[in-house]
Design a protein that fits this description.
alpha+beta, Endonuclease, Chain A, 4-stranded mixed beta sheet, 122 residues, 4 strands
């Protein structure tokens, strides 16, 4: 499937998203980068026509951080469409409220790691 991942037309968008990551995403990225939890994650990764916050290609796992803007019905509708598209392509999605990163970072890391181990063991 040509240009399914990281389409060249989205390159500048992905780059801008990486430069302007919300604080919660930046904190989580510091814990996910460089295989710190055994699994390699990429940030602001393009899959078909959407960009996910974090993606583990080996496990086909997307991690989305949902901040306060995700309470807006328009954004919730976009999230549903994104989830549907990812599931259609057999990509699992783990949604985490950004507040959890600030309040329970270790628990969030453990949740992501546990999900990775579960998928890896299947």
């Amino acid at each position: 499937m040509p240009n399914f991942y990281n389409k060249p037309s989205q390159k500048q968008i992905r780059r801008n998203l990486r430069k302007t990551m919300p604080k919660g995403e930046a904190i989580l990225w510091r814990k996910l980068r460089n295989n710190q939890i055994t699994y390699k994650f990429r940030r602001q990764y393009g899959i078909n026509n959407v960009i996910v916050d974090f993606y583990c290609p080996k496990l086909r796992l997307a991690v989305e951080i949902d901040g306060i803007t995700h309470e807006d019905p328009t954004v919730q509708n976009k999230d549903k469409k994104k989830t549907f598209l990812l599931k259609k392509h057999e990509i699992r999605i783990l949604r985490i409220p950004s507040s959890e990163i600030f309040e329970n970072l270790d628990t969030v890391i453990q949740l992501i790691y546990s999900e990775c181990k579960k998928i890896d063991g299947e």
